[in-house]
Amino acid sequence: MRIAIFYVLFVSCTLYALWRGGAPERAVAGSYFAIWLLDGTLNLAYPADFADMDPIHLAIDILIWLSFFAVAMRAKRFWPLCLVSLQTIALVAHSAKFMDVSIAPRAYLTMQIASSFPVLILMAIGTYCHQRRLKANGSDPAWRGK
Predict the structure, then answer these.
(1) Could you give the CA distance from residue 139 to residue 128 in angstroms, rounded to a whole number?
(2) What are the C-alpha distances in Å from 76 to residues 24, 72, 114, 129?
(3) How far apart are CA 80 and CA 105, in angstroms?
(4) Whole-angstrom Cα distance, residue 50 to residue 30?
(5) Which of helix, strand or coil describes residue 139?
(6) Most CB atoms closer than 10 Å: which of 7, 69, 87, 117?
(7) In 3D, which of 3, 44, 1, 10 has the Cα closest to residue 120?
């Protein structure tokens, strides 16, 4: 049931951000969708058992962290900074598993995916706030000036 809820939330929030978001919202939605495709493809070839530190998911989590960080550093928005913080939880999970392999596989899995739901919700909230600013001000600058 959790997976079905995630997919409904993933599709609706991603499409909403791509359809109604500004450049930062679309950048985050596009990168999150690309990482989701990459993750699904790699899981078919290399299924994770979460018993050991998973280098494939570590690489994926680093890629999405870098993507979120790049948007957060350029965007005239606060919410991408929150995404970077949430994605850091997944990176901490890999570090914890690397340092202590006795961490239960379920705990490692939970730490890796715990930020997935809040990331989607923040993306939707960011898109909604963008729409409100557009309506109130007529424009909403996406990126910081040089």
Answers:
(1) 14
(2) 8, 8, 26, 12
(3) 29
(4) 27
(5) coil
(6) 87
(7) 10
CA angle 74, 28, 5 (to 5 degrees): 150
**Length in residues, the chain:** 146
pLDDT tens, position by position, 20-71: 999 999 999 999 999 999 999 998 888 888 888 888 999 999 999 999 999 9
Query: What is the rounded distance in angstroms from the CA atom of residue 61 to the CA atom of residue 52?
Result: 16
- Quote the CA–CA distance of 67 and 128 in Å, as a whole number: 21
| Longest CA–CA separation in the chain, Å | 55
At 71-112, the pLDDT tens digits run 999 999 999 999 999 999 989 989 988 888 788 888 888 888
3-state secondary structure 10-70: HHHHHHHHHHHCCHHHHHHHHHHHHHHHHHHHHHHHCCCCCCCCCHHHHHHHHHHHHHHHH
Tokens 């965007």 locate to: 75
Give the model's pLDDT for residue 2. Answer: 84
